[in-house]
Amino acid sequence: MTAVSAVAHANIALVKYWGKRDGALMLPATSSVSLTLDAFRTTTTVTLLPEGAPDEVELDGVRLEGAPRTKVVRFLDLVRSQVPPELAGRGAGVVSRNDVPTGAGLASSASAFAALAGAAAGAYGLDLDRRGLSRLARRGSGSASRSVFGGFVRWNAGDLDDPVRGDETSYAEPLPTAPDLDVAMAVVVLDAGPKAIGSREAMASTVATSPYFPAWVEHTELDAAAATAAIAAGDLTVLGEIAEASAMRMHATMLAAYPAVRYLAPASLEVLDAVAALRADGVGAWATMDAGPNVKVLCAARDLELVGEALALAPDGARRRVLLARPGPGLRTETLP
Ligand code: DP6
């Protein structure tokens, strides 16, 4: 029996991906730039089952059924559509584990689909280079295309004129990085409260109804270019400013959707104040937020403990939960004996 295991890490976008131009091919409206973290890891093993056996999917020890299973089965079908018939007829056993602090609300579809892409491609004998793996992971979840690589990564929007060319050219790649750009990220974990709208649906609604969406698309391409240049030049201040601005613009664009999409909680804004206070004290720290209330704060690696400690102190004297992360590696796969 062929079994392949893969490990992928979460990534946090510094220039955000928010909106698709093609939902079937998972082509983004814009390029995006991210940092892969050493924390929040997914390990997935795919084992080929005998011909005709149904796919079995297990996540963190629980057998998946219904929609979450279907999402994985569809992805496996995409892999099977690219392999010879004798392999395409075989089901798969998928066992996945997330190393995320429990209750942190940080389980990531990026690490999940990057690991699944690596393990499924390996088990079905689909011979893909890193670029091919990134394109495959993209089909599971857009941000997963970026978790194929470690450190700073750019996911290219790809050819905008033709979907076939777009599919071929929309992949992530590691960014040339100044050797002295030594960054880290403090992740402030806030109470997620009642679950807001899922990011895929929220994204589609933003594209369809936010009058700010065209401006978002136009500006994000500029931000991606500027962030790429700042990473190459090792300019953390410029990178941090672009990252915080991109997050603010993404949330502004979704707040302008109808009905409005709001992920930020009052506590998120308090953390933004704390980040601004750090900067006023001369500490380089810049915030970014995704489809939830948590705030991730980019800073120099040497400032990480200090930033983490400052953000742990809430105005009411309570302590916030802060996880400290550093740049992490790209996708790794291993064929099991
Ligand atoms: C806010 O990659 O989870 O984290 O492609 O629909 O699976 P799908 O969406 P997903 O969206 C991530 C959105 C974001 C910003 C980002 O990571 O760039």
From TrEMBL:
Q: Which residues form the Diphosphomevalonate decarboxylase-like N-terminal domain?
A: 8-160
Residues in domain Mvd1 C-terminal?
Answer: 187-311
Q: What is its EC number?
A: 4.1.1.33
The UniProt entry, under Pfam families, shows: MDD_C, MVD-like_N
Which key words are in the record?
ATP-binding, Lipid biosynthesis, Lipid metabolism, Lyase, Nucleotide-binding
Q: Does the keyword ATP-binding apply?
A: yes
A molecular function annotated in GO for this UniProt entry is: diphosphomevalonate decarboxylase activity
Highest taxon in the source lineage:
Bacteria
Instruction: Tell me which GO cellular component terms the UniProt record holds.
Output: cytosol
Do you know which PANTHER family this protein is assigned to? DIPHOSPHOMEVALONATE DECARBOXYLASE
Protein name per Swiss-Prot or TrEMBL:
diphosphomevalonate decarboxylase
Species whose genome carries this gene: Salana multivorans
